[in-house]
From TrEMBL:
Bilayer-crossing regions: 12-30, 73-100, 112-133, 161-183
Keyword Phosphoprotein: no
InterPro entries: DDB_G0287341-like
Coiled-coil blocks: none
Keyword tags: Membrane, Transmembrane, Transmembrane helix
Protein name: Transmembrane protein
Length: 212
């Protein structure tokens, strides 16, 4: 059985698995939370619709035609997330292959491809995160109630929820794996000095064999 010799590649592999799992979970969770104390309700939003909770009861509804602009924001974020998810799968396969590749030239080419795909992944996850910042203004155009992306007042509490935070965590882990891709595997060689040379020359004279 072939043993894993490249701890760096194994670490990258673990980080990418975490990024993949967290990204998948993000689209099963709600992305935004609005607590309106004036109306006495809490609203949770995600790409498939919204959930309105009032006094222990909750109503789940899909986005209707009047909420197409809100839905479009989630769709863009979802598409970017799916592209990022696909790139992470490719990175996982390349890093898994790296654990068993012994040829330096093949590993070099694989690392170059992994670096390029990593930057593409970061770009799409970043777009997904930043584009979602448009949600408050778009939601306000429909509801008539304006609020900030993060707002804590006596009448309303608004902030990003689990799904959006998970995408941020996925981005951080991908960035961590990308940094490791640029870390050299080679050990630093000990610099050769005159003292090293002297020790090498004197080594035969330090024999422990008896002279008499």
């Amino acid at each position: 059985m072939k043993t894993f010799k490249h701890s760096k590649d194994l670490t990258i592999l673990i980080l990418l698995i975490i990024a993949l799992v967290v990204l998948v979970l993000s689209y099963h969770a709600y992305w935004y939370r609005i607590e309106d104390k004036d109306l006495g309700c809490t609203i949770y939003l995600k790409y498939s619709g919204q959930k309105v909770v009032t006094k222990g009861e909750h109503i789940i509804t899909n986005w209707d035609n009047e909420q197409e602009d809100i839905k479009s924001i989630f769709i863009v974020c979802l598409i970017c997330g799916v592209i990022g998810w696909t790139c992470i799968i490719i990175l996982l396969l390349s890093q898994f292959a790296n654990l068993f590749i012994s040829s330096k030239s093949n590993r070099f080419l694989m690392n170059i491809c992994s670096r390029v795909i990593s930057f593409i992944t970061i770009a799409f996850l970043l777009i997904s995160i930043l584009y979602f910042l448009n949600l408050p203004d778009t939601y306000a155009d429909w509801s008539g109630k304006k609020f900030n992306f993060i707002q804590i007042t006596d009448s309303i509490h608004t902030y990003p929820y689990v799904g959006w935070i998970f995408v941020c965590l996925s981005l951080i882990t991908v960035m961590g794996s990308t940094i490791l891709l640029f870390v050299s595997n080679s050990k630093q060689k000990k610099p050769k000095t005159i003292f090293n040379t002297f020790e090498t020359v004197q080594q035969p004279l330090l024999s422990t064999d008896p002279l008499f």
